[in-house]
Amino acid sequence: MKNVCLTWILLLGCLMNPVQAETIKQHSTALFYAPNLPVELLSQYQRVIVEADNVKPEELTALHQGGASVLAYLSIGEIAPSRKWYKSVKPAWILGKNRVWDSEIMDLTNPEWRHFIIEELVAPLAKQGYDGLFLDTLDSFQLIATTDEARNQQAEALTQTLNEIRTQYPQLKLVANRGFEVMPHIAPLLDAVLAESLYAAWDNAHQRFHPSKAADTEWLLQKLQALQKEFKLEIIVLDYLPPEERDVAEKLAKRIEKHGFVPWISVASLDIVGVGMKPTAPKTFLLAYDSVQESLIPPLPYAAVEAALSKHGYKLHRHDIQTGLPIQALTGRYAGILSFLPFETQSKAYQNWLLQQHRAGMLFQALLPPASLPDSASGKRK
C-alpha cells in the first residue's frame, strides 16, 4: 500500500505544476478530534481544530497558553444521532436523511433550527472560550433540494445564519469545510476554507486509503486556487494516509505547501498527531510497566533510562498497564514505546496492543531481550 500511495502521489506531483497563491497569511493548522489531547504537541500549531465534546476545560486553557487558536467543529447542515443534544431536535427541522453517514439533513430555512444553532450550539462554545468554528456540512441540502428555487432558499438561509453568527460573535474565526456550491454566498464571511483529499483520500465505505484520481485532484486544485484569487481566502488541505506512512506524509505535506495551501495529513478518525506545516517531532517516550509483576522482582533501572533520555532532550512517561492500556492512537504523540516486560508472558491484550502500535509505525525498544517482539513482527521497527 505504501508503494502504491507514494507512486501515485509522486506521479500527480509531476502532472500538477504548483501555483503559488497571492500573499495570504497562513496559519499552521492541526486537526484532532479524539479525547486526551496531546496539548504539548498541538500547541505548537497556530490553529487547532477540535471536537469540543472531547476537550477538557484545562486542555483548552493549556492550548491557549501555548499560543494556539482553538476552533470547535460544528455541523450546520447535518446532525448525527450520537450528538448529546440530538433529542432536542424537532422533526420539523429535518429535511431528509443522509443514509451513507446515518445522519439527518437539516432544513436551514427553518428559523427554529437556525435559532438552535446560534443559541444552543454557538453560544456555549463562545462562552467556553473557543476562538472560532469549523463549519461542516454546509451544502448537505443539495442531497435533498431538487430545484433551483429550493437550493437558493437553503443557500440564502445558510448565509443568514452565518451573518447572524458574525454579528453576535464577531471575534469568532470561521473556517468552512468545502461548501463550493454555496461559496459565492458565504465566502466574504469566512477566514479560511478546508478541503479534503487533494492527493490522498479515505474510502469510508470500504475502509481503505487510496490515492485521489488525477481528474479529481485537478478539479479540486482549480476550485481552491479560484477561491484564493477571488476571495483571498486561506486554504487548508486535509489528506489521508496510513499512520505508518509518515515519511510519505511529510513529502505530501511539502507538496501541498508548494501550492500555497496549509497541509494536514492524518487518518480519517483524526485521532493521531498528523503531519502539518510545522514539524512536531515528539520528545517523550512511553514506558509500559506492570506494577503488580514488578513488585515481585528487584527494582528496574527506570532512573537510569530517564537520565539517558534526558541527555538527548527526551522525556519519559511511565504507564502502568494495570490501569489499562492506552486506547488512543499513539502515532505522532510519542517518540516511541519502551518496555522491560517479557513479551511472551504478557496478556493477549498487551501483546495485541503493542503489535498494533508497532504496525502503525510506532518505534518500539525492548529494554531487555525477553521484551523483544516476536520474529513474526520482523520487517518492522523493534
Write the layout of secondary structure elements.
Layout: H1 2-15, E1 29-32, H2 39-42, E2 47-50, H3 57-65, E3 69-75, E4 78-79, E5 94-98, E6 103-106, H4 111-128, E7 132-136, H5 148-168, E8 173-177, H6 183-186, E9 192-196, E10 200-203, E11 208-211, H7 214-231, E12 234-240, H8 246-258, E13 262-266, E14 275-276, E15 284-289, H9 291-294, H10 302-311, E16 315-320, E17 336-339, H11 348-359, E18 364-366
Parallel strand pairs: 1-2, 2-3, 3-7, 7-8, 8-9, 9-12, 12-13, 15-16, 15-17, 17-18
Antiparallel strand pairs: 4-6, 5-6, 10-11, 13-14
Helix pairs in contact: 4-5
Question: Keywords, please?
Answer:
382 residues, alpha/beta, 21% strand, 11 helices, disordered N terminus, 9-stranded mixed β-sheet
